Amino acid sequence: ANLVLGRLGHSFLGGEIVLDADGARAAIEKRCARPLGLDAVEAAHGIVEIANAAMGNALHLVSVQRGYDPRGYLLVAFGGCGPAHATALARDAGIETVLIPRSPGIFSATGLLVTNLEHEHTATVLALLGSVSADELESAFAPLEEAGRRELEREGTASEDIAFVRLLDLRYVGQSFELTVPFGNPDDAVARFHEEHDRAYGFKAAEERVELVAVRLRAVGRIAKPRLPELEGGALPAPKERREVYFAEAGAFVETPVYDRYQLPAGAGFEGPAVVDEYDSTLVVHPGFAAETDVHGNLFLGRA
Length: 304
Hints:
With 304 residues, this protein is of the alpha+beta class.
């Protein structure tokens, strides 16, 4: 998966599509390498690097440009291709830890099945926050809660499993954009707004008046969560095969062990370079990273 020339196997609608190395090489040579005056390996590596750069830009957009330093966070990689690029993205972004959930290819679908039901309702209330009384705010939230409750009950949610999260859209007077903060009481909301403004934009103006733009209610219907299976501990099994994989760090093809993820016990650890195969995804562990399986079958990767 690290190299487009590598052997690829993907299940698709019950059928098996297999691209062998010779077929992949021929396609890359015809479509990319020859027109660009490159050899097939250079072209294939360029394809992967372009993909990594695009994903790195997307990661920057949702982290740095929103006021978050990615170096202080854990990177979760899922989907069929996410684990193939995860360690390269973590390396480039300075992220120390990567989590690869079990069955990453169906991670999003699993999330749809186990996440709580949520509905969000909003009402415009344009006024200085300090001029709005607690009773007025309560009156604004009450119909939103009633609407959220009715929706969740129609979906079969029991009353004891319904919860509400109150939020406020706030801004400094004169601004044309708002930030959403949790609401407990007005004083706490103002303090949270100043903190959030400082985090998002790098400054706050505690002396400025804060304007309420809208009240926002999140109606949550809690659903039962499945119990995650637990793996037994054991020693790292032998690789199911060894494969020549190109890594830019080495500047050459490297003989790389390939592990079957379903055979990895809890606590099994290994260092890159390595490849981990499973039915719905392929994980590439770059040199300089190490991986370890936890009791639920998740793989944690960090700097070796």
